[in-house]
Design a protein that fits this description.
Number of strands: 14
Order of helices and strands: EHEHEHHEHEHEEEHEHEHEEEE
CATH class of the largest domain: Alpha Beta
CATH superfamily of the largest domain: LD-carboxypeptidase A C-terminal domain-like
CATH topology of the largest domain: Glucose Oxidase, domain 1
Structural class: alpha/beta
Strand content: 15-25%
Mean pLDDT: 97
Radius of gyration: 19 Å
CATH architecture of the largest domain: 3-Layer(bba) Sandwich
Low-confidence stretches: none
Distance between the termini: 18 Å
Strand order of the largest sheet: 6-14-13-8-9-10-11-7
Largest sheet: 8 strands, mixed
């Protein structure tokens, strides 16, 4: 499968901001402005999309209007990258209105995580373009921004900021693919889900927030029953936050590690967990389609190639 890398950014370039899922709400305005300041302080310009301002249910416009904003951003030669202002709940409804031919002809970094998983995987499936699973605007720190977006060289080894965990010992190498686990599940079975060949020799990464263990259990079994675990070389697990209690107090509750390892007991690939990506944490960029290696004993993640050209 051919991976398409977008051109690298240069200081002074313009970055487009879109509300591709959640609108900019009054409660999130402060974080939105902080994210803009980070971009300005890094030396870039900003162009806000037409989705910045409107409110339609839990979206920044109808699905068609959100898609139109993206369809205008990609061919705009003055905009060199696009960042989602936040995650949300509506990306799945936008996919049918995106112009994948326009996106294919105008590759550029499209950044964000959470609901952005759906965009990243769908665009990968339709165009082969690298999807930048990394901080969206509302939690942007800028720590990895220049390293991953302005340099075509491999970022190399990324050091852990928190305590990474070895759940299954080993070393692995392959290209990244993944995102928010529940959004991978939502997209699967649709014409926008990547062909399973994209998972051959891959490093599958995932994180989760606000679900109970039985839901995570089902999402993982869905991937297992799709044959995905038979294809991958390794697994990276990010932060799993705010696990809800099971609906019946009489159930016994396993530890998340115990449950995951039980589901994956027949597979030999290594697993590293509690890594620095996901919700309510700073995100290591995980560009989909880019080759990495990891060593669970060393708690080391190494990027083997750049994500831009």
């Amino acid at each position: 499968m051919k991976v398409v890398k977008p051109p690298r950014l240069n200081i002074g370039d313009t970055i487009g901001i879109v509300a591709s899922s959640t609108p900019v709400l009054p409660s999130s305005k402060e974080n939105y402005e902080k994210g803009k300041k980070v971009i300005y302080d890094l030396g870039f310009r900003i162009k806000e999309g037409n989705t910045i301002g409107p409110l339609h249910w839990w979206m920044a416009g109808s699905p068609k209007e959100v898609a139109e904003d993206l369809n205008q951003m990609f061919p705009d030669k003055n905009i060199k990258a696009i960042i989602a202002q936040n995650g949300g709940y509506s990306a799945i409804s936008v996919l049918e209105h995106l112009d994948y031919e326009v996106i294919s002809k105008n590759p550029k970094p499209f950044m964000g995580f959470s609901d952005m998983t759906i965009y990243h995987l769908a665009i990968l499936a339709k165009t082969g373009m690298v999807g930048f699973h990394m901080d969206y605007l509302s939690n942007l720190t800028g720590e990895f921004f220049l390293k991953f977006l302005t340099q075509s060289t491999a970022p190399g080894v990324i050091q852990a900021k928190t305590k990474w965990e070895q759940w299954k010992k080993g070393k692995a190498q392959g290209h990244l693919i993944g995102g928010l686990l529940e959004r991978i599940s939502v997209l699967s079975g649709t014409k926008y889900f990547p062909d399973l060949d994209w998972f051959d020799g891959s490093i599958l990464f995932w994180e989760e927030i606000g679900r109970d263990l039985s839901e995570i259990y089902q999402y993982l079994y869905q991937l297992k029953n799709m044959g995905i675990f038979e294809r991958i070389n390794g697994m990276l697990i990010g932060k799993i936050k705010y696990i809800k209690p099971l609906k019946n107090e009489e159930f016994t509750t396993p530890y998340i590690k115990e449950m995951v390892l039980d589901i994956l007991k027949e597979y030999r690939f290594p697993i590293m967990a509690n890594m620095d990506f996901g919700h309510i944490t700073g995100n290591i960029p995980l560009p989909i389609g880019i080759k990495v290696s990891f060593d669970t004993s060393k708690k080391e993640l190494k990027f083997l190639e750049g994500a831009v050209i």
